[in-house]
Amino acid sequence: METLTVQNIFNLSALDILSERLKTAATSKDFFAEVDEIASNPELLLPLPAPIEFPFQLNSEKAGDSGSAITLLEAVGPLNPADAADPRLWSYLALVTLRSYMESRWPVEGEEKWQNKVKERWLLGKPSRRRLIRHGISRLWWVASLTHDADLEYQASRESNDEFAYVKWAFENQNRIQSIFERQLGSNKRVRWALLEAMQKSKAKDQSKEIKRITKEMNLESGFRQLDVLDSDELEALIRVEV
């Protein structure tokens, strides 16, 4: 298969223009014609210090999200916090490089409220935790980055000898992603991994409900004490699950 190579991303002016064109475009087809015009204008692009190469187009099936996330993480590599939240990168990948994937995974053609879907899944505006976890491409990198266990430190990774065990578990259920990673709790490494380990081992019939219950309790708890200073036993006691 042909390798997809990314050498440029949008600059800030391009994002501003795209935001305006999204408001005025009569149809999604008109909007993407504007995208193509902007993507072909060197004055609206920013060269990357090193190219990003994808070995193939991502799997657009919902069940393939974990595989797509792993491919994206390996292609893009580790990012500092500023680059990981850069709307220029994620918008370019969604609208240009990985458009075929996006058209299948998050289609907008023929939808009455297509502009809203473009805003949520395609064109990343001012980044926030929720927006990064909702955007069609950045969500893949972020969740994979936050659940990748390169050194096999955690139980599921060790038992399966798979550094991506928790990536695969997270993408099995969209509610897991929303409940854990869209919340501030997901940004704290120790708390996040304590929650991931506990929920991965849980035998609760309704894990979505269980995750919501636990994250609600932890959010309340974080209001009067710092969760990141709790030791492992205290965190385990706080995260009570059916195992």
Brief rundown of the structure:
InterPro entries: DUF6339. The protein is mainly alpha-helical and 243 residues long. The chain is 57% helix and 7% strand.
Please describe what this structure looks like.
By secondary structure, the protein is mainly alpha-helical. The chain folds into 2 domains: 4-144, no CATH class; 173-238, no CATH class. It is built from 15 helices and 2 strands. The protein has helices at 12-24, 28-39, 65-76, 81-84, 87-97, 99-105, 114-122, 129-134, 138-147, 155-160, 165-170, 174-181, 189-201, 207-221, 232-238; strands spanning 4-10, 45-54. Strands 1-2 form a two-stranded antiparallel ribbon. The mean pLDDT is 89. Pfam families: DUF6339 (PF19866).
Taken together, the total number of domains comes to 2
Helix/strand/pairing category: mainly alpha
Number of helices: 15
Helix content: 55-70%
Strands of the widest sheet, in order across it, are: 1-2
How can the largest sheet be summarized?
2 strands, antiparallel
Task: Tell me the span between the first and last alpha carbons.
Answer: 44 Å
Average pLDDT score = 89
Order of helices and strands: EHHEHHHHHHHHHHHHH
Rg over C-alpha atoms, rounded to the nearest angstrom? 19 Å
- What best-fitting shape do the alpha-carbon axes yield? elongated
Low-pLDDT segments, ≥5 res: none
In terms of quaternary structure, what is this? single chain
What is the strand tally? 2
**Which range does the strand content fall in?**
5-15%
